[in-house]
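User: I'm putting together a small comparison set for a docking exercise, and I want a reference complex before I start. The sequence is below, and the ligand is S-adenosyl-L-homocysteine. Could you produce the 3D structure with the ligand included, as structure tokens?
Assistant: Of course. I'll restate your input first, then give the structure tokens for the complex.
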Amino acid sequence: MTDRDRERTALVERLREEYDLGERVCSAVAAVPRHRFVPERVRDGAYDDRPLPIGRDQTISAPHMVAMMADRLSLEAGDRVLEVGTGCGYHAAVTAELVGPENVYSVEYHADLAEEARETLAETGYGGVSVRAGDGKQGWADHAPYDRAYLTCAAPEFPDAVVEQVRPGGVLLAPIGTGRRQVLVSARRRADGSLEREKHGAVRFVPLQ
Ligand code: SAH
């Protein structure tokens, strides 16, 4: 076991104690080497439970937030998932642990972040995750319908195209709001296209571009 492995194991123990997380989600966080996804200058803090800067004024969410989002989405093996906001690719890797890398489709606004995330994902064994540079508000229609879709940046509302690309009975999750703080909202898509919403508390995310 390396020092990083020990730090990660300790982090997962803390998350297990402090949050109501399913065992599969804890195992997924325990499996993904977060230090490989963050810039070298902040690598020593990779296993602190806090957000970290990843360049372009963007941040990787705190581990507990990634874990909570995965938990709220109740991701099952084989679920097809759309992620809006790849960032450094860490959250996509945790999702990949839960559903299988080939089922994860992620859209990133900044082309250079998308490229770096693609490289890191390949180097860490998650090369099956698909990353596209572009505007996530449009979703990724080629691979729809999705069982699950989530945003890692705050939006005023679930983007219409993303809602349309989720199958009836599928679930969306996003920080919704326009201020510095937002509300984490999940929504099940009904057959008629309307959404059955549930609020999960206040959060703070970077805004959707
Ligand atoms: N999940 C990421 C965290 C990303 S922070 C990780 O694990 O690192 C939010 C990301 O959303 C940023 O990388 C930002 O560039 C991206 N983003 C913002 N607006 C977007 C848009 N319209 N489409 C796609 N990505 C967007």
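DSSP finds six helices and nine strands in the chain. The beta strands are 52-55, 58-60, 81-84, 104-108, 130-133, 146-151, 166-176, 182-189, 195-203.
User: Thanks, that's exactly what I needed.
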